[in-house]
Amino acid sequence: MQFELERIGVHESVETVFPPSELAAYLDDLPAEVTVVGDDAAEITACDAVVTFEHRDAYLEVDWVHSIQAGVDRFPFDEFEASGVVLTNSTGIHDRWVGETVAGYLLSFARRIHTAVANQQDRRWDQPDWNDGFTLPGTTACVLGTGTLGSGVAEVLGALGVRVTGVRRSAEPVPGFDEVYATEDLLEGVSDADFVIVTLPLTEQTRHLVDAEVFEAMREDAYFVNVGRGPVVDESALIDALESDSIAGAALDVFETEPLPEESPLWDMDEVIVTPHCAAFTEDYFRAVGDIVRENVERLESGEPFHNRVV
C-alpha cells in the first residue's frame, strides 16, 4: 500500500505508558512532521498516520495506525479493513521486559519478598516459617502462549534454572521450551507445574480459556500468573480457586475490568500480587516503539511491506 506520509500524530493516550512528547521528539528526524494530537477529530484526520494506545473513531479517516502495544483487541479490524486503514503493532519489543517482571513475581513468591513488603507497612518483624521459602531451580513453569511474550518469559526463567513448558495450538517444539503441549492438552500441561503463566493475547478463541477446570487441574501449591490479557481468564473462577486454597497464589498484571475495581477481593488476598498493567513498562519503551515506526516509514518510502502489520 502506498500513500503520502506528511504528518504523523502521537495520540495523547500513549501517556498511559510514556509522555507523548518524548516519542514525538524521538521521531523528529523523520521526513514527516510529527506532532502530539488529542481527541479533536479534525486534529486527528489532519494526520496521515497516528501512533496510539487507544482507539478513536476518527482513525478510520487516516491511512495508518500504529499501536504501542502488541495486543490490538481494542481496534475494530473489520472497520479498518473496510476503510483501507493499515494497522501495525509493537510485537517484539516487550519480550525481555515482561520476562523480567514475571521472574520478579516468581522470586517474590519463592523468597517471600511480597510478605516482607506487606509486613513493612505495619512495622511488623515477622520471619517466614523455615519451610516457606524455596528456590527456583528445579521448578516447572507452564507458559500459555509461546509467541513473543511467552518466549521472553521462557528465556528469562530458563536462565534462573526453571524448566519451562509451553501450551500452543500445536505440540510442535519451540526454541526455549523444554516441552510443548497442544491447546487440547492444556489440562495435562498445567497439572504438574509449579507456576502457570498466561502470555496470550485476547481473541475469540482465548477468551476465558483459563476457567474453573484449569484451576482444578493445577496443583494446590502452584502459583498462577497473568501478563497477557485479563479476559483470557475467568476472574470469578480464579477468585474461587484462591479463596478455596485450590491454588497457592497469583500474580496479576491484567484484569477483566481495568483499573481493578476497589471492591475486588483480589486486593486483600495475602498471596496475590496486583500490579497495574505495567509488566512491560520501562524507560526505553518510547524508543522501542519509535524504532518500529521509523522502520515502517522507511519501508513505506521504499515500497516494502509494513513490519508488524495486523490489518
The strands making up the biggest β-sheet line up spatially as 8-7-6-9-10-11-12
Estimate the helix proportion, in percent.
25-40%
Give the quaternary arrangement of the chains.
Answer: single chain
| CATH C-level name of the largest domain | Alpha Beta
| Secondary-structure arrangement, i.e. CATH architecture of the largest domain | 3-Layer(aba) Sandwich
Number of domains: 2
Number of strands: 12
Organism: Halopiger xanaduensis (strain DSM 18323 / JCM 14033 / SH-6)
EC number: 1.1.1.79
Protein name: Glyoxylate reductase (NADP(+))
GO molecular function: glyoxylate reductase (NADPH) activity; NAD binding
Summarize the structure in words.
There is one protein chain. The longest helix has 18 residues, at 285-302. This protein has ten helices and twelve strands. The model has no long low-confidence stretch (mean pLDDT 97). It folds into two domains: 7-93 and 282-302, NAD(P)-binding Rossmann-like Domain (Rossmann fold, 3-Layer(aba) Sandwich), CATH 3.40.50; 95-274, NAD(P)-binding Rossmann-like Domain (Rossmann fold, 3-Layer(aba) Sandwich). Helices cover 31% and strands 16% of the residues. The chain has helices at residues 20-26, 41-45, 77-83, 95-111, 113-121, 148-159, 186-191, 212-217, 235-243, 285-302; strands at 7-11, 33-37, 49-52, 64-67, 86-88, 140-144, 163-168, 179-182, 195-198, 223-226, 249-252, 272-274. The strands form two sheets. The protein has a seven-stranded parallel beta sheet with strand order 8-7-6-9-10-11-12. The chain has a five-stranded parallel beta sheet with strand order 2-1-3-4-5, sandwiched between helices. By secondary structure, the chain is an alpha/beta fold. The radius of gyration is 21 Å and the shape is elongated. Belongs to the D-isomer specific 2-hydroxyacid dehydrogenase family. It is an enzyme of class 1 (oxidoreductase). It holds the Pfam family 2-Hacid_dh_C. Keywords: NAD, Oxidoreductase. InterPro entries: D-isomer_2_OHA_DH_cat_dom (IPR006139), D-isomer_DH_CS (IPR029753), D-isomer_DH_NAD-bd (IPR006140), Dhydh_Halo (IPR054891), NAD(P)-bd_dom_sf (IPR036291).
